[in-house]
Amino acid sequence: MFLEQYKLESNPFAAGAARPTFASHSMRYTLLKLDELFGKQVQSLFLSGAAGVGKTTLARQRLRQMKDLSLSWIKPSCETREQLLAQLLEEIGPGPVEGSASELRHILEVFLRHQAGNGRLAFVVADGLERFAAPVLRELEALAQMRLRSRPVVSLLALTRSEELVANLLPQY
Q1: Burial degree of 100 (CB within 10 A; 0-12, 13-18, 19+)
Q2: Which of 89, 125, 128 is nearest to 107 (CA)?
Q3: Strand ranges for 40-109 from DSSP E
Q4: pLDDT tens profile 68-77
């Protein structure tokens, strides 16, 4: 019925087909902010909106265009601090490392500061932030606050459905 009503030859929303994109003011603004994040002008960016509006799709499309990017995509299935640190070490750190949470944190800090000292900034995408466990959120917050010579060592892109969560995470000025 959809195809007949709009006189289309094929379904544009079929799996594997090119998805149509719609440019709105908010999408253009979001792309500008993502460019600022990747250009190291902004350290943390929170994208919020209703389910299904395209936050993850937009971020994935923009990240595909980036070359030589040190990236870790964290999902809510990462339930503990240790899981988060192990994933970060494997994806943006020196590789898989075993140890306690404090040892993993120390290794990650040293590695990220060394990378930042050589001009390489790591990017962490936290997708579905509203479903993360509290210890993981605290660890992400600590990661975003890590500095080398007053400059951040990690850029954070947080995707969430919850405006309230973003308001609670942002520092009160």
Answers
A1: exposed
A2: 89
A3: 44-48, 71-74
A4: 789 999 999 9
